[in-house]
Design brief:
The chain is mostly helical. The chain has one domain. The chain has eleven helices and no strands. It is globular, with a radius of gyration of 23 Å.
């Protein structure tokens, strides 16, 4: 924020923290203490304490989705309390919007402070709320699907939770679809700053040269919805290995897409996202090997080291990207983005000319 560079590394780190935090909760048996390597990432899901303090969730304090979750002390009450914290963050965001609007209204028009507040106020128009929804989407969808899978409704609190879960699941499907339609509809005008500034959260640092690159926000929601559904597969289900197949296949598809389409405006950001995804894939593979699917103790020991290393690399990769952005500054980053766009346009023009030549030869 001080150097006015992109916030993409911040959102990307939180993104992978959210994905990695729940990896041990797939339906495999792990040594519970191994979860300590990934447990700090639970802060990205607003899981802050081991105890439940919100009264409404006290009755769920000793209930767990299945026996696997009991090993990691993630009770339904603790997850419900995390959902409560997410709602509080949303209310705080609304309060900040109101305070900013009042401050803009009472400050002298034309002053620097008024212009600063007007600029910040414009970010609340869709942008801040879209980003908040993107950050809370995984948790909202996961909690809702988990409650519907549980199927219990013998108390008023559980009946209310079921009703709210139905609403959240429906919204989790319809709202991302609406975002996708909006982006596709406005794509021809996305190069205009005034048009895209209210939706920068969805297309942050994405190159708008071709429609293929706007798959990024669509993929964001599809991946989280799929992961949330896979996490709620029962222990006795025959779809246990399908959990890891879905997660790993989606990750590899994303790596191939980033490597070929290069959706981000800067080559450095493309490399950063690709490296982060590769580290996350190694984390997924490590957690799979370090389970009852692999009986060899030496192999488990080796992959436990790899798991801890991937966690460190994930944070180090983010820190390296942030330090590089701070060193280069916004001007060098803009020049790099401009140069990358020009090279991409030249390459696409050359590709179109070659395609037309091949088509003409084929017709001849």
């Amino acid at each position: 924020m001080i150097r006015n560079t992109t916030l993409l590394p911040l959102w990307t780190l939180i993104d992978y923290m959210q994905l990695a935090a729940f990896l041990p909760l797939f339906n495999f048996n792990f040594i519970p203490y191994m979860y300590d390597a990934l447990k700090p990432f639970l802060v990205s899901h607003c899981v802050f304490t081991n105890d439940v303090y919100v009264p409404i969730f006290k009755e769920f304090e000793d209930e767990y989705f299945n026996e696997n979750w009991k090993k990691y002390w993630l009770s339904v009450g603790k997850l419900g309390q995390a959902l409560y914290c997410i709602i509080l963050v949303g209310l705080a965001l609304v309060a900040a919007n109101i305070v900013c609007a009042i401050a803009w209204f009472v400050t002298p028009k034309g002053s620097k402070l008024n212009a600063f507040l007007a600029k910040k106020l414009s970010q609340f128009k869709f942008n801040a709320y879209i980003r908040f929804y993107m950050l809370s989407y995984y948790d909202l969808t996961f909690f809702a699907v988990m409650k519907l899978t549980d199927g219990t409704a013998h108390t008023d609190a559980r009946k209310l939770a079921n009703m709210v879960s139905y609403v959240i699941v429906v919204v989790s499907v319809l709202l991302p679809f609406a975002f996708s339609v909006l982006i596709c509809k406005r794509f021809p005008y996305m190069k205009i700053k005034e048009v895209k500034q209210n939706f920068n959260s969805l297309v942050l640092n994405i190159d708008k040269g071709r429609r293929l690159r706007i798959i990024v926000p669509i993929f964001f929601f599809v991946r989280r919805f799929s992961t949330a559904c896979m996490l709620t597969v029962p222990l006795d289900s025959t779809m246990i290995f399908l959990q890891y197949v879905v997660i790993v296949v989606i990750s590899h598809a994303w790596m191939i897409y980033v490597m070929t389409a290069k959706p981000y405006a800067s080559p450095m950001l493309n490399r950063y996202v690709f490296t982060s995804e590769g580290t996350y894939v190694m984390c997924c593979v490590s957690t799979l090997v370090f389970s009852d699917s692999e009986p060899s103790l030496p192999i488990k020991y080796g992959f436990s080291i790899i798991l801890c290393t991937t966690v460190v690399l994930l944070i180090f990769n983010n820190l390296l990207c942030v330090m590089t952005l701070l060193y280069r500054g916004p001007e060098k980053l803009k020049k790099e983005i401009h140069l990358a766009k020009q090279r991409r346009i030249d390459a696409e023009i050359a590709w179109d000319l070659e395609r037309d030549r091949i088509q003409q030869e084929f017709q001849a």
